[in-house]
Write a structure and sequence with these properties.
single chain, 389 residues, Endonuclease III, domain 1, Nucleoside Triphosphate Pyrophosphohydrolase, 15 helices, 7 strands, elongated, disordered C terminus, binds iron/sulfur cluster
């Protein structure tokens, strides 16, 4: 049960079972970085199509660094967690500028890139340059916790430190990137959360090294995360039309969906007209409900009401950028997924549905910003309390 035999076992299993993924096989650090940033908090299945399209448009650091962030968002649209796109864009700028377009090769330099943490730096450098650096992500955390028989929280400091030490100890001295990829695949395909292979009919290649299997604690390890309480929230998005255009807002820096466009929306809390007035700088009254959309994001169970709205003219300086958009302009604007979904559903109209272009991106589960401010406005029009229309 030595480390060399564990490594041999991992490599032998990987030779027969490695997953066919678009980013497998590349040693290009930029391509690996793109895949790793996309895979943060997103499943492999969701990333596949995005990765290919992104690299077709931004095949190298220079092309990404030179692009407008708006266009980068457009290629990220639907993948969610847009901060990753902005940080990847910034990282490309740092590599193109500070490093003269040459991808850095030291751990500290890669770790210093925007959006890059210890896992991502280790993954990029081990896969691209075979540097002996460990990785720890969801699959390997679960695998290592079981191999070590850890009954403590893997995110608690001491346990996490132990996991990193173990991840480093078991690394081979060559083919490190391949070994890291093999461990991730083993975690995701063999040592699964609910049905690890040792509890099924096929034996696990690491059974002899596994403390959890020896102790019969596969179902107890890793200790589950404490689930947050679910909160029900109702949001409202407003369709405002004028002379063949619709009103959209762009989220500013510092809020969720920063840089993306959307229908004016906020919490449906009885202060909708006031909030929309602050966001858009316009008096907007709400009317007939057109559709509802339900989804869950993190601890929020969200019901989104999509309603018609009426523009009653300017009110004040808007907090968000505001634009009256034609169907033709829509394809160039990056939008959040639920906004794009509403357009594609044809509720807004055929021309606008056609204007959403042909990016067949996977659905992102959207989340919504809090309402801003709580002041009454001077609009004398009907409907200044949503829900009473
Ligand atoms: S023996 Fe079971 S619990 Fe242990 S690593 Fe293999 S699949 Fe996971």
């Amino acid at each position: 049960m030595s480390l060399p035999s564990l490594r041999r076992r991992v490599f032998a299993w990987f030779s027969r079972n490695s997953r066919e993924l678009s980013w497998r096989g590349t040693r290009n650090p930029y391509e690996i970085l793109v895949s790793e940033i996309m895979l943060q908090q997103t499943t492999v299945a969701a990333v596949e199509g995005y990765y290919r399209r992104f690299l077709q448009r931004f095949p190298n650091v220079e092309s990404l660094a030179a692009a407008e962030l708006t266009e980068v968002y457009r290629y990220w649209e639907g993948l969610g967690y847009y901060r990753r796109a902005s940080q990847l864009h910034q990282a490309a700028g740092v590599i193109a500028g500070k490093h003269g377009g040459i991808f850095p090769q030291t751990f500290d330099e890669v770790l210093a890139l925007p959006g890059v943490g210890r896992y991502t730096a280790g993954a990029v450098l081990s896969i691209a340059y075979d540097q002996r650096l460990p990785i720890l992500e969801a699959n390997t955390i679960r695998l290592h916790c079981r191999l070590l028989g850890l009954t403590t929280n893997p995110f608690e400091m001491e346990t996490n430190k132990r996991l990193w030490t173990f991840a480093e100890e078991i690394l081979p001295y060559k083919n490190v990137g391949r070994f890291n990829q093999a461990l991730m695949d083993l975690g995701s395909r063999v040592c699964t959360l609910k049905q690890p292979q040792c509890l099924r009919e096929t034996p696990c290649p690491l059974f002899e090294w596994c403390q959890a299997a020896r102790l019969g604690l596969q179902r107890e390890i890793p200790v589950p995360k404490v689930k947050p309480n679910v909160e029900a929230v109702t949001e409202i998005a407003v369709l405002v039309r004028k002379r063949g255009r619709i009103l959209l807002v762009q989220y500013p820096d510092g809020v969720r969906w920063a840089g993306l466009w959307d229908f004016p929306r906020c919490r449906d809390d009885g202060f909708v007209t006031e909030t929309l007035g602050e966001l858009t700088g316009r008096r907007i009254t709400t009317g007939r409900q057109i559709a509802t959309h339900k989804h869950t994001v993190t601890r929020f169970k969200i019901t989104l009401r999509f309603v018609e709205g009426k523009d009653c003219g300017p009110l004040s300086e808007p907090q968000y950028a505001v634009r009256w958009v034609t169907p033709e302009e829509l394809n160039a604007l990056p939008m959040n997924s639920s906004g794009r979904k509403l357009l594609r559903s044809n509720i807004v109209g055929e021309k606008f549905a056609a204007g959403t272009g042909n990016h067949d991106f996977a659905d992102q589960k959207p989340t919504l910003p809090d309402s801003v401010g709580r002041r009454s406005n001077s609009c004398g029009h009907v409907g200044n309390r949503t829900g009473q229309q």
